[in-house]
Amino acid sequence: MSSEHLDSARKFDVSRAGEYAEQSRIALAGYDACHELVACMLAASLGSGREARILVVGAGGTAQEILTAAALEPLWRFTAVDPSAPMLELAQASLQAQGLLARTRVFLGTVEELTDEPPYDAATLIGVLHHLPGDQAKHDILKAIATRLKPGAPLIVAGNHQAYASQPLLLAAWGERWRQQGASADAVRAKLGKILQGADPPHSEAAVQHLLQEAGFGTATRFFSSLFWGAWVASRSAV
User: Quick check: 90 and 122 in contact, CB under 8 A?
Assistant: First the structure.
């Protein structure tokens, strides 16, 4: 496992994993809507009612992308990958509660560590890129996903983009979002300080496009946006 992946995985320890489901829905206004649209975009890309194998990278925590997609498409099967054991355990519990473990392979590690197997029909990478420091780590994970997809297969990428400090109004609104949900003024200041120090998002939508194209994907289409967050779909190049 690379040092970048190890550092990112360590952030999601037992304490952070335990609060992830609640915190993520506050941090991302439209959390459930984004995941619903992810499932819809995959179904629109693959065709509804067909069997498909979906690679879910960074599935730990809620496993929401699997829960939502599985409800829409009962013939899909999933491989859930995450380097954080506490986060993956939470995902596995959610999948078990919904009766989805029979349709899901759970893999502790990185996508680069997946053994050779038939290429996947589609993949998702949600809430991961902005936790990887530097462009090289971002490129490496996207490239690793590309090599495990069929030519033309769709990839959903979702996460924060834009340097946080470069958008003070969005950052202030993000703080107000926490206050709206009951956080104290001190707690909001602490969260703003943490986000400024704890992540490295791509600095623009153009940077996301560039990373995808360098990794072997075509032009991405954005289908969801919420403050710093964006979600895109792109297809693996045919060659």
Answer: no
Is residue 81 within 8 A of residue 57, CB to CB? The reply is yes
Q: How confident is the model at residue 43 (pLDDT cuts 50, 70, 90)?
A: very high
Print the domain residue range for 7: 3-162+201-235
d(Cα 33, Cα 147) in Å, to the nearest integer?
Answer: 29
Mean pLDDT for 123-150 is 96
Q: Using CA atoms, how far apart are residues 83 and 164, in angstroms rounded to an integer?
A: 25
Q: What is the CATH number of the domain that holds 59?
A: 3.40.50.150
Residue 36 lies in a domain: yes
**Backbone torsion region of residue 38, taken as left when φ is above 0, otherwise alpha when ψ lies between -120 and 50, otherwise beta:** alpha
Residue 69, both tokens? 């997609």
In angstroms, how far is CA 234 from the centroid of its own chain? 14
* Residue 17: partners with Cβ closer than 8 Å, 6 or more residues away: 60, 61, 84, 86, 87, 89, 90
8: pLDDT confidence band, cut at 50, 70 and 90? low
